[in-house]
Structure formats: structure tokens, C-alpha cells
Amino acid sequence: MKRELGIARCGLACCLCSENETCTGCDSGQCPDKEWCENRKCSISKNVGYCYECNEHCRKGLLSKIKPYAFTEFVKRYGINCLLDCLERNEKNGIIYHREGIHGDYDEFDDIETLIEYIKTGDSSLKNCRDFQTASLHRND
Q: What CA–CA distances, in Å, run from 57 to 54, 76, 81, 83, 104?
């Protein structure tokens, strides 16, 4: 994990991305996606550095996907350092951010609250649970 890369404006984990060798980040001026990235444009227009600094709970751009949205919500609740600590611990314990392409362990969720709990705990029994109540029952087994 390259912790110093942190997360992108939209919540994607730059620190874990397999493309971070060539990616220079949202604010480098070199980002190939800067012209179309809705999250970059929106956060700049609101004068915030990251979507997690915004008070709205929108699903614009990449926030329409569960992983960046959950990472953004996690930071709003627990802070950026807590997210980075959890991602680092989870990576050391074998949780994969990317496999082939963009799909990894954090992408296997339908429910935001269950994914946030998975980020916090790294508990693999939460994967494929359809809602947080079901996930809570599995944890107590």
C-alpha cells in the first residue's frame, strides 16, 4: 500500500490502486480523466478537496458505485486516517482492492452499511450478505 497516495476526490483508494504507477492523481493536472470527471468538477466548483468534505449525500459520477461511495461515507464518519488504517490492515490480511481490472473484494457488496462494516472489521463473513441485519446475525454465529 502506498499510504501517501491516500484516496481520490471521489473516494477511490489511490493508495491501493494497481494503476498508481502511471496515475498522477486528481490534482496533478496530468489526470487523463480530468475533463469528464464529474466528482473532480463538482468538488472544485464547491471549493472542497474531496467529496467526503461535502455535506451533500449525492451519488454523482463515481459515487454512483458502491465502493467509492462507501469509502467516502466511511471517511465522513471515522476520518481519513481510520480508513487508511483499515485498508492497510485489510490488505495485509489478504483483502484485494483490484483483481483483474477493477473488481475486488470491496466490490462484492450490495449494501453500503455492510461494506462499511467490512472495511472496519475485515470480516469475510460479511461478503455477499444482502443487508446489514443479516450481516450482524452472521457475526454473532
A: 8, 10, 21, 18, 24
Per-residue pLDDT of the chain (141 residues; tens, 9 = 90+): 888 888 999 998 988 887 767 777 776 777 777 788 899 999 999 999 999 999 988 999 999 999 999 999 999 999 999 999 999 999 999 999 986 666 889 998 999 999 999 999 999 888 755 444 444 444 444
- Give the chain's length: 141
Domain boundaries, the chain: 3-139
Burial group, residue 129, by CB count within 10 angstroms (0-12, 13-18, 19+): buried
Contact 17, 7 (CB under 8 A): no
Q: What is the pTM of this model?
A: 0.84
- Can you tell me the distance from the alpha carbon of 114 to that of 130, in angstroms, rounded to the nearest whole number? 8
Of the candidates 134, 86, 82, 84, the one whose C-alpha atom is nearest the C-alpha of residue 109 is 134
